[in-house]
Amino acid sequence: MVDAEQNSLRKPRADSLRNREQLLAAAKAVFTEAGAEAPLEEIARRAGLGVGTLYRHFPTRDAVLTAVYQREVEQLCAAADDLLASRPAFVALEAWLNLLVDYMATKRVVAPALRAGAGPQVYAASGPAITGALQRLIAAARASGAVREDLTIDDLNRLMIGFSHGYDQPGWEASARRLIKIIVAGMGAA
Predict the structure, then answer these.
(1) What region holds the HTH tetR-type domain (predicted)?
(2) pLDDT in the model for residue 24
(3) What separation in angstroms does the CA of 47 have from each of 40, 111, 150?
(4) What local confidence, expressed as pLDDT, does residue 125 receive?
(5) CA-CA 20 to 30 A from 65: which of 41, 45, 57, 136?
(6) Structural domain includes residue 176
(7) Is the CA virtual torsion 153, 154, 155, 160 positive or negative?
(8) With the CA atoms of 161, 78, 107 and 179 taken in that order, what torsion angle do they form, in degrees rounded to the nearest 10?
């Protein structure tokens, strides 16, 4: 019994973690290109792994979709701190808003497929994490004096709702990136 407990407490092996990451990166690419109903075999092939490896990590299509979405949220949130550590706060905020567009492009593909199953719980958990990342970026930009003092999280949330409108339509991404430039120009300290 102790051996079974020890096995369940062990960290995943490095190759297993690497395989999982390869599968998630491939899944994002395949789903973005071919939609959420793309063959899972194509994901395994693109990752350079066997389909059995895919199923060991993700027993169902929903599990793959959920993991891709969660990975996107985690990467978006982690990027806020990485950008703040490596760039001036205002530049970090603009770069993060562009990463948000990338996140939305992925979400556009996986969101409809996640409406059932774990989708609602996954979405509920992602909102506070994304808002927290944005709050850190705004606070740092305000503290640096680079943005208007009256800029709030609510202001940026409203702006994000605006530039996310029609994210499932052709041409949305280019339009969203133009709007980010306009938004950033208006956020600067007066």
Answers:
(1) 17-76
(2) 96
(3) 11, 22, 47
(4) 81
(5) 136
(6) yes
(7) positive
(8) 40
HSE-CB for 45 with a 13 A CA cutoff: 6
pLDDT band at 53 (very low <50, low <70, confident <90, very high): very high
Specify whether the CB–CB gap between 156 and 138 falls below 8 A: yes
All residues at 6 or more sequence positions from 101 whose CB lies less than 8 Å from its CB, including other chains: 163, 173, 176, 177, 180
Together in a domain, 44 and 88: no
What residue numbers bound the domain in which 174 lies?
71-190
pLDDT at 9: 67
Clarify whether residues 119 and 189 are in a common domain: yes
Which amino acid is residue 12, in one-letter code? P
DSSP 186: H
| Separation between Cα atoms, residue 65 and residue 28, nearest integer Å | 9
Answer for the pair 65, 36: CB distance below 8 angstroms, yes or no. yes
Using alpha carbons, select from 13, 35, 141, 29 the residue that is nearest to residue 88: 141
* Mean pLDDT over the full length of the chain: 88
Q: State whether 16 and 54 are in the same domain.
A: yes
- pLDDT tens profile 88-145: 999 999 999 999 998 888 888 887 777 666 667 777 788 899 999 999 999 999 999 9
Percent of the chain with pLDDT over 70: 91
Is there a single domain that holds both residue 110 and residue 133? yes
Same domain, 55 and 80: no
The answer to whether residues 46 and 88 belong to one domain is: no
* Tally of domains in the chain: 2
